[in-house]
Design a protein that fits this description.
Blueprint (H helix, E strand, L loop, with lengths): L4 H10 L8 H11 L1 H10 L11 H15 L1
Helix pairs in contact: 2-4
């Protein structure tokens, strides 16, 4: 299933109307909520920063940067 980020975020924000989120908070929520879709996103990404990644923590950091840029 492809991640429909717009629809997912709309639902998330509607259920949390009383809270404020940074783009990074939202990216972290997306990553935690849709790990399989995010893994596919990383695998298909042409982001040059991924070429220098040596472990999963760095991969997660680059993923969050990608998601923040999309917000």
């Amino acid at each position: 299933m492809a991640l429909n980020l717009s629809k997912s975020l709309t639902g998330f924000l509607k259920t949390n109307l009383d809270k404020k989120f940074t783009a990074r908070d939202i990216a972290q929520w997306v990553s935690n909520t849709y790990p399989e879709e995010c893994e596919k996103k990383i695998n298909s990404s042409k982001n040059k920063n991924l070429e220098e990644v040596s472990n999963n923590i760095e991969r997660q950091s680059v993923l969050l940067q990608i998601l923040v840029a999309e917000n």
